[in-house]
Amino acid sequence: MPVVVAATGSYLAGMRRFFLPALLALAALSLPMAEARAQQRLGSFQSWTAATHTEGGHKVCYAFARASKSEGVPNRKANNVLLVVTHRPQGRDQVALQAGYTYPRTPDGAADPVQVATGGPALGFFTAGNSAFARNGGATVAAFRNGREAVARGPGPNGRGQASDTFSLSGFTAAYEAISKACPAEGGARR
User: Fold this and answer.
1) Over the chain, what HEC string results?
2) What residue numbers bound the domain in which 30 lies?
3) Single pTM value for the model
4) For the chain, how many structural domains are there in total?
5) Residue 105 maps to which CATH number?
6) CA 64 to CA 85: how far, in whole Å?
7) pLDDT tens string 171-187
């Protein structure tokens, strides 16, 4: 003979208090996983890789290269240092350098602490946390298209010494064209 257990209001309320947060947490964890699966590699172009991913429901295209040489910071590996160009719906030609360490705080109004040289005039990058960002993404992309290598120089961790990172620009133009095709400018205009 089956046993029937009557569910009381407090029992159901307790189960809801347990399962509802667990289900919400599971759903929240599945969103980044779904977005991670949405990453698509567009190709490798010599030293550069082009790819897309979804961010907040929008397609984002990016090209990146790892440093071929990093100096000035002990125990930092060049393959952990990245130079990235990104096209987002709200902005194109966003250029960032991930240094692999936290930059020292720059006082307001100070000159750009990171300078990137490609053979022409140095390009200024401002810092935030472990990244440096180009002041003028369009000019930086144009310099990358015309250069052979990019050398970034900036303050080392805690403002001690100078760090230097070298990136090959071989394949940059092809990678940039791949991300520009995958994420065309609004209205279909191309750079």
Assistant:
1) CCCCCCCCHHHHHHHHHHHHHHHHHHHHHHHHHHHHHCCEEEEEECCEEEEEEEECCEEEEEEEEECCEEECCCCCCHHHCEEEEEEECCEEEEEEEECCCCCCCCCCCCCCCEEEECCCCCEEEEEECCEEEECCHHHHHHHHHHCCEEEEEEECHHHCCEEEEEEECCCHHHHHHHHHHHCCCHHHCCC
2) 9-38
3) 0.76
4) 2
5) 2.60.40.1880
6) 6
7) 999 999 999 999 998 76
